[in-house]
Design goal:
Layout: E1 6-18, E2 21-26, E3 38-46, E4 52-60, E5 70-74, H1 82-86, E6 93-97, E7 114-120, H2 125-131, H3 135-139, E8 142-149, H4 158-167, E9 172-178, E10 188-189, H5 192-198, H6 200-205, E11 214-220, H7 222-234, E12 248-252
Parallel strand pairs: 7-8, 7-11, 8-9, 9-10, 11-12
Antiparallel strand pairs: 1-2, 1-6, 2-5, 3-4, 3-6
Helix pairs in contact: 5-7
This protein binds flavin-adenine dinucleotide and NADP nicotinamide-adenine-dinucleotide phosphate (NAP).
């Protein structure tokens, strides 16, 4: 990557949702991009031979176009980059690639009455960027976010999603699935995949999940994506491809 494509961004806001899970906002407004796209964020580290080098990874942009860059990050223990980014405090800096990229965007999603947005962990980041713009609200009658996390403390952005829904006549339903602790009656205790299999997902969303009425985006843990795709394929959902309009658009984080 060319040196002039990188910019040094300084952290202006930091939310620590729970230990190891943060939102970082930078003093950088990126050039126009499509919600759902990602960019590289890096720190000074070392290459394989131990020489000083910039090491970087891809992160979905959570902010809307035209707004200061926001990322939603988890610290992957033993990881080369995320522990450094997660530890950044206000006033500290990271390298940010100037040109967002990626195809996990709403222009790849065909028309349909309902839009389902499935995420595990920080996979909700691209949906925040989308939902912070008018496009999904103009195109879909109903939107459902399905967030899968390990612990109740890992649930992030719920209040903002509720506010966005209220601003749009309650057309967004939130289903939160918590796996490693009983989250109480308003959330599902178990994996996203189990919520789908038991029929609880549609019940909690108040929206039926059928190929005739639904477009589905899925983002995050690759194993979650594989298992969810298998269940959805069995139910008649098909991948969206360049040649053929289907129902499923997805992005693996690793
Ligand atoms: C398109 C795209 C967008 C992404 N957006 C985000 C984002 O918005 N927020 C975010 O937190 N991460 C995001 N990621 C993941 C991110 O790029 C890094 O992979 C992650 O931060 C780990 O980097 P690391 O250098 O710390 O770990 P590494 O040194 O690269 O190694 C850690 C290993 O952990 C695995 N791994 C990677 N991510 C995770 C994870 N979240 N949980 C468990 N294991 C993991 C991989 O197998 C990897 O080999 C995205 C990845 C892609 C491909
Ligand atoms: N607070 C935090 O979130 C935090 C803090 C510090 C470090 N970390 C580290 O960050 C990494 C990522 O953690 P994460 O919790 O964001 O991501 P994750 O491991 O992908 O878990 C997120 C959710 O996805 C579920 N899931 C995993 N595999 C699935 C599958 N095949 N099908 C359906 N659902 C599936 C998990 O359920 P299960 O619980 O059943 O696996 C969990 O509810 C881990 O290395 C973790 O140790 C996380």
């Amino acid at each position: 990557m060319k040196e002039e494509d990188w910019i040094r961004g300084t952290v202006t806001d930091r939310i620590e949702w729970t230990e190891g899970l943060v939102t970082l906002r930078f003093d950088v407004v990126p050039p126009p991009f499509r919600p759902g796209q990602f960019t590289s964020v890096g720190v000074e580290g070392q290459d394989k031979e131990g020489r000083p080098a910039r090491i970087h990874r891809l992160y979905s942009i959570a902010s809307a176009p035209g707004e200061p860059l926001e990322f939603f990050l988890v610290r992957v223990d033993g990881g080369k980059v995320s522990p450094h980014l997660e530890a950044l405090g206000i006033g500290e800096a990271a390298w940010i690639h100037r040109k967002p990229k990626g195809k996990f965007t709403l222009d790849r999603v065909p028309e349909s009455p309902h839009l389902w947005l499935f995420a595990s962990g920080t996979g909700v980041a691209p949906y925040l960027s989308m939902l912070r713009t008018e496009e999904p609200w103009e195109r879909f009658e109903r939107i459902v976010t399905v967030q899968g996390v390990r612990f109740p403390a890992d649930v992030a952005y719920e209040e903002e999603l509720r506010r966005l829904s209220a601003r749009h006549d309650g057309r967004l339903s939130l289903v939160t699935c918590v796996t490693r602790m009983d989250p109480g009656p308003k959330r599902y205790h178990g994996r996203i995949t189990a919520a789908l299999q038991t029929g609880k997902l549609s019940e909690m969303a108040g929206v039926s999940l059928t190929p005739e009425t639904s477009q589905i985006m899925i983002c995050g843990n690759p194993r979650m994506i594989e298992e969810l795709l298998e269940l959805l394929h069995e139910r008649g959902f098909r991948d969206n491809t360049r040649k053929e309009a289907g129902h499923l658009t997805y992005e693996r984080y690793w």
